[in-house]
Amino acid sequence: MASVLKFAAAGLLVASAGAVPSKQLRSSSLQKRSSSGKAGAAYNDASLVSALIGDSSDISWAYNWGCGSYADLPSGVEYVPMLWGASSTYLDAWTSEIESAISDGSTYIMGFNEPDMSSQADLSASEAASYYKEYITPYAGKATLVSPAVTSSSSSGEGLDWFESFISDCSDCSVSVLAVHWYGTSVSELQAFITEAIDTASNYGISEVWLTEFALSSDEGGISDLSTATSFVEEAGTWLNEQSALTRYSYFYVANGYLLTDGVANSVGDAYNSAASSSSSSSSSSVSSSSTTSTSTSTSVYVAPSTTTSSSTESTSTSSSTSIYVAPPTTTASTSTSTSIYVAPTTTTAASGSETFNTNNDSTSESSAEAYDAPQATTTSVATSTTPSTSITTVTITQKVTVTAPCVPTPPPCQLSSSVPTPSWSSSGFITRTAVVPTSTSAL
């Protein structure tokens, strides 16, 4: 809320700093610039922006409440032009200046400055909508359009209430960003207002909010206490950087008595530069996340049943080893399951000699031990009986399963690479199946 009255009342007008935001004439062309961070510089004297930024700041954009930079901004800082008001002072040269700014690299256009205040642009919502459509909307295809910047006043017809009236009258204006100003007494008040602004913008399909002026009310006319202002900027900057919908902000403002003292960044300026660096880091860094999931999988494996011939209840144990490949990232450390298996009735007849099997599907016969490589039941002669008898055979199958995975899923997260040797690991578990087998015995 930068007004002549407030500065004059505070007795803090500084001619050299140009403390009152005002229309400036272009004295040099802009360079095309790129931006990445949130923090910006609100200024009247571009040379002071250079004094604030120095060699290491990440302040990425700047504006001067007008549409002309009277000195070059530091390299890497994008200039954002503004149509401050609707009087002939601002409208007469608007077309030539905005087209020149866009040609020189500006990618955003800001609307009127606090039109909801009589001491500033002083426009009704309907008047602002009409001027916006005529002078700003035509550039929608060349730049991203920012709404008029409203105050944080909660009075009817001001602040966000004014914006809602404006956007209702200007629904076809191609506004993509809501701009707001805030002056208050605490970070918690700022947080509440920005949250409300983000919600309000969202109601009209606008996903971005810019905070183009903010400071403690006690510092509007100049920093009243460096320690208090420094703490405020540190806390506010941290929170603003965390709000994804709050995409740009600028403290009020780059001038002596504010972010600077005698042309050098003071403690408040240093805190703001630090916030700028944090915002640039968070917006440009790429975050890669990965997770390791351990999944226990029950695998059904068919095991050929061994043939058991007996006239009494017997227990046969079959052990086999099966290697199973499990694709990453699923890793099975061990599996255990109990399954009931129905085995069809077998007819047992008395016989003598050694029983043979063929598990290779060829003409070669194998002994039971060769076929299944496990203890096998022997063939026992059974007395002839004319009455079929039925016995219950319990078969316990213990199967060892070896699971192989391409790498160990423990911190740090497993990362596969064709150029790096991949370690392997395995673990074993046992699957136990118990089957109740009805056995029919017939007469020899």
Automatic annotation (TrEMBL):
<feature type="region of interest" description="Disordered">
    <location>
        <begin position="351"/>
        <end position="386"/>
    </location>
</feature>
<dbReference type="InterPro" id="IPR017853">
    <property type="entry name" value="GH"/>
</dbReference>
<keyword id="KW-0732">Signal</keyword>
<feature type="region of interest" description="Disordered">
    <location>
        <begin position="277"/>
        <end position="338"/>
    </location>
</feature>
<dbReference type="InterPro" id="IPR053183">
    <property type="entry name" value="ASL1"/>
</dbReference>
<feature type="domain" description="Asl1-like glycosyl hydrolase catalytic">
    <location>
        <begin position="40"/>
        <end position="272"/>
    </location>
</feature>
<feature type="compositionally biased region" description="Polar residues">
    <location>
        <begin position="351"/>
        <end position="368"/>
    </location>
</feature>
<dbReference type="InterPro" id="IPR024655">
    <property type="entry name" value="Asl1_glyco_hydro_catalytic"/>
</dbReference>
<dbReference type="GO" id="GO:0009277">
    <property type="term" value="C:fungal-type cell wall"/>
</dbReference>
<dbReference type="Pfam" id="PF11790">
    <property type="entry name" value="Glyco_hydro_cc"/>
</dbReference>
<feature type="compositionally biased region" description="Low complexity">
    <location>
        <begin position="374"/>
        <end position="386"/>
    </location>
</feature>
<feature type="signal peptide">
    <location>
        <begin position="1"/>
        <end position="19"/>
    </location>
</feature>
<dbReference type="GO" id="GO:0071966">
    <property type="term" value="P:fungal-type cell wall polysaccharide metabolic process"/>
</dbReference>
<protein>
    <recommendedName>
        <fullName>Asl1-like glycosyl hydrolase catalytic domain-containing protein</fullName>
    </recommendedName>
</protein>
